Amino acid sequence: MARQKRSHHRLKRAVAPYLYLSPSLLIIGLLMLLPMVTVISYSFQNSAVLRRDPSFAGLKHYQAIFADPVFWASLWHTLYFTCMSVVFHMTIGMIFALMLNSDRINPTLRNILRVLYILPWLFTAVIIAVIWRLLLEPNGVVNSILMQLGIIGSKIEWFSSPETALHAVTFANIWAGYPLFMVSLLAGLQGIPKDFYEAADIDGAKAYQKLIFITIPQLMPIIISISLLDFIWTMQVFPLIWITTGGGPIYSTEVLSTYTYKLAFSSYNLSQAAASAVVILLISLGLTLFYIRYQKAR
Amino acid sequence: MAEVILENICKTYGNNFRAIDQLNLSVEDGEFLILVGPSGCGKSTALRMIAGLEDVTSGSLRIGGTDVVDMPPKDRDIAMVFQSYALYPHMTVFENIAFSMRLAGKPKAERKKRVDEIAKTLQLTSLLDSKPANLSGGQRQRVAMGRAMVREPAAFLMDEPLSNLDAKLRVQMRAEITSLQKQLGVTTIYVTHDQTEAMTMGDRVAVLKGGVLQQVDTPKRLYEAPVNAFVAGFIGSPSMNLFEATLTGDELTTGAFAIRLQDAAFARRPGLRSYAGRKVVFGIRPEHLHDSSLESGRKYQTIPAKVTSIEELGSEHIVHLSIDAARVDSGDPDAVQDFGMASNAVAKFEPDSAVRSGSEIRLALDDTKLHFFDPETHLAI
To answer: Cα–Cα distance between B49 and B9 in angstroms, integer?
Structure first.
């Protein structure tokens, strides 16, 4: 009897953690895993969703995508868009964080700058897209300022010219995304003991040496984590590009997300769209695994 | 190697708070000077001013004959050991110690040679490739010392370097730092709030209170001849007992008891006679109060006291007592902790003392060890 009681108690103890986890597991299963599995299965079907009894298609849709030059162009655009965004998010975030952390700047000014610098973060993607569409209009503020300064000779159609469109959306995304880095790095900077800098002062370190030998190594864990997260998120950016350029002109800003969207909801080729979505999933998954491994290694 | 001379150094902060007031201090070449005082007395500020981490409001500061007031820290030829050690966590022990040489652009071979030498002195050779996180407190402390030594500075500045160590290790590191300083012969200024460190490590000790220098002297002189009640109370553990009494003829009277003073006491302090008929503050250290029932206490005159509590430490008993006399505050904020609610005096008895908590005893008092202070100015008489 006593033994039975004890084993019962043990079982309860063993099951308890899973019971606590079950609500979140259920929600993740329903909202994340199920759609994911469904999309993966669509990518191997002919006329997925559209027909009741879709037939197995094998790798046909994948072959179709890989044969499509627009897919490769959008993959390249995605990489350009993402890499540039992450690098500049980090650089600008770092510069602003260093400024906000510097005691050489008047505290009142610092507080004002802190609010100003964080503003882009308060806007949703749609508003950011609209703001930049207005600013970068041929008759917009940016062109008029650049012309008055004599930097450009004629009005540039930033979002409508194939040469500038990708740079323009990347620029808008850089503007929208640096505050995450800024805030994280600022928190990191404030956590670096002052003693490190004082010891370095006594050892004769110049400002740039303190940055290289103390600040950046101390911030490295934050830089790597946030960069990886930013990379994963930026790869999937959709609304900003959709509202500013819609992937055009002539596919010049087509990224994997807009490419997939168009396949699904313009061409109604849901199976190919699913295949493209799986490609995005695989790239994101690779990066996520890298991120998890990095987090574990720490 | 150099002497460090502070002349009329003042430090006032933006809110008009004066952290250091007219500090004059001269540290000789090769001397080990301890700056000690209760928290907030300005000792760390003084050290940071010498290091150049804090601006000097007024006054002159010379290291090795050079006026360094307007010099950045790196040009002052000093090295500092921080309370937190300030070791860079992302660098190995080797890189930490070699950091200043790397900044100075010294070649790799030279760096290695010098660091190896220092590591040998500090017994860190096997740890050179470790990161600070993997070291014990004592090892980190030694790395911090190594980082200071590598620069071969004119002076070492140490800001409470042992306060993060546990008690046992502190005793060991105290001895290590002292012998290292003797071996290197580098002028050293050492800040601490721990008066055991102050008494055991330094050639001389400077006692600060509220930004004002109270006394600079050898540990022995500070203990035997404190210049005022504050130094008397601050130096020694537990603190000196200070009471108010009236000098009536040859006797100190408190109303409840009288202590007869010998002629020698007046001979040594010519000023004491002038307090006749007036109030005076007298002080006696816990180790000069004895249990009158023991051999050690028999030869002294006694006063009545009530035992309030006893701390048996094995080698001695710290006995908290209540004496019918008005206790005088030395002005040391830490000293209050020595006294409980009911007690106003502390004595150190030998371990074979049989006194019990709550009992009324006769307290033997070595009257040759009495100290006298002016009740107004608290200056020694």
So the answer is: 9
Q: Both B164 and B247 in a single domain?
A: no
Regarding whether B241 and B228 lie in a shared domain, the answer is no
Domain match, B93 and B208 both: yes
**Extents of the domains making up chain A:** 60-297
pLDDT at B341 over 70: no
Nearest CA-CA distance, residue B235 and chain A, Å:
30
- Asked if residue A275 has pLDDT above 80, the reply is yes
Q: How many domains does chain B have?
A: 2
Mind telling me how many Å the CA of A214 is from chain B's nearest CA?
7
Most B CBs within 10 Å: which of A194, A195, A203, as the mutation test of the B interface?
A: A203
Q: Does B104 touch chain A (CB under 8 A)?
A: yes
B-chain residues near A213 (CB < 8 A): 88, 99
B82–A213 CB contact, under 8 Å = no
B86 touches chain A (CB under 8 A): yes
A204 close contact with B: CB closer than 8 A: yes
Same domain, yes or no, for B91 and B222? yes
Strands B187-192, B204-209: pairing is unpaired
Residue B381 lies in a domain: no
Contact A220 B72 (CB under 8 A): no
Q: Which domain holds residue B249?
A: 237-373
Question: Quick one: angle between helices B137-149 and B108-121, nearest 10?
Answer: 130
pLDDT at position B268 = 86
* Residues B204 and B77 reside in one and the same domain: yes
- In this structure, the answer to whether residues B175 and B68 fall within a common structural domain is yes
| Residue pLDDT, tens place only, A187-241 | 999 999 999 999 999 988 888 999 999 999 999 989 988 998 898 888 888 888 8
CATH of the domain at B108: 3.40.50.300
Q: Give the nearest partner residue to A218 out of B78, B90, B104, using CB atoms.
A: B90
Residue B314 belongs to a domain with what CATH number? 2.40.50.140
Q: What is the pTM of this model?
A: 0.80
> Which member of B86, B89, B103 has the closest CB to residue A198?
B86
Contacts of A198 in chain B (CB under 8 A): 51, 53, 73, 80, 82, 86
A213·B52 Cβ contact <8 A: no
Does the interface predicted TM-score (ipTM) exceed 0.85? no
Interface residue A201 vs chain B (CB under 8 A)? yes
Q: What is the pLDDT of residues B76-127, one digit of tens each?
A: 889 999 988 899 999 999 999 999 888 888 899 999 999 998 888 888 889 8
Region A60-297: CATH code: 1.10.3720.10
Residues B93 and B153 in one domain: yes
What does the pLDDT read at residue A210? 92
Residue B379 inside a domain? The answer is no
Question: Which residue, of B192, B213, B233, is where some domain finishes?
Answer: B233
Amino acid identity of residue B4, one-letter, is V
